[in-house]
Design a protein that fits this description.
The chain is of the alpha+beta class and about 240 residues long. It folds into 2 domains: about 150 residues, no CATH class; about 70 residues, no CATH class. It has 11 helices and 6 strands. α5 packs across α10 and α9 packs across α11. About 25% of the residues are buried. The structure holds iron/sulfur cluster. The site of iron/sulfur cluster (SF4) has 11 residues, from α5.
Length: about 240
Amino acid sequence: MKVMAPDYYPAFRCTAGACRHTCCEGWEIDIDDEALARYQAMDGEFGERLRNCIALQPEPHFELLPGERCPLLRADGLCDLIAEKGEESLCQICRDHPRFRNYWSDRVETGLGMACEEAARLILSADHPIRLIQIGEDAEEPEEPDEEELALRARRDRLLAEVKETGPAARLKEYLIYRHFADTLYDGRPEERIRFIEKACGEILAGWDGRDVPWLIERVRVFSNEVEYDDEALEKRIAGAQ
Ligand code: SF4
């Protein structure tokens, strides 16, 4: 089925060593089965070193160093695994980050999460309303969406079209709608999600002078880290946004 994304999506490039808040710090990174099998078969000194960085229980993951740094993160901010074996050697989570996916019956919608400062910069500096483009095809066969699903998507599209703010504030609201409304399909809570989006927007924009975009990027990055990437915190916000 079709994979859709906002038109800024293909322009995303991880800034790696230049990133001030690397995602290789502070997160526990689980390793998928396919990557684990590759790491276990990797020969040579680097393969040995890589395996020494992995704990297998409770789930295979990289054992963080003090300061919650990934053991493969070098002092210059680059990833040792990429440097040694190339980007294709990464596990699924590292390959995906900061991307998210929302699934509809006939399409996958992907996007960039604002926990990444470069993604936040790209999203907030877009000079036009969010525009979805097809960026590829997924292996899954599409199914015909039922009327309820089509109505939900139409409502989402209306919410996007109704964004009244301008500039980065508009881009922020569109991002929150695009990222968080689609899951209504699974939890049937459109009103709660809309209230959550409104509240989150108000909270993030509180104190913004309307000009200082780096300030807003940092604000949204922290919000995304603390709320969007913490299932419990997100659920509390959505359930409490009444
Ligand atoms: S936070 Fe974004 S820019 Fe920084 S290292 Fe991670 S993916 Fe790259």
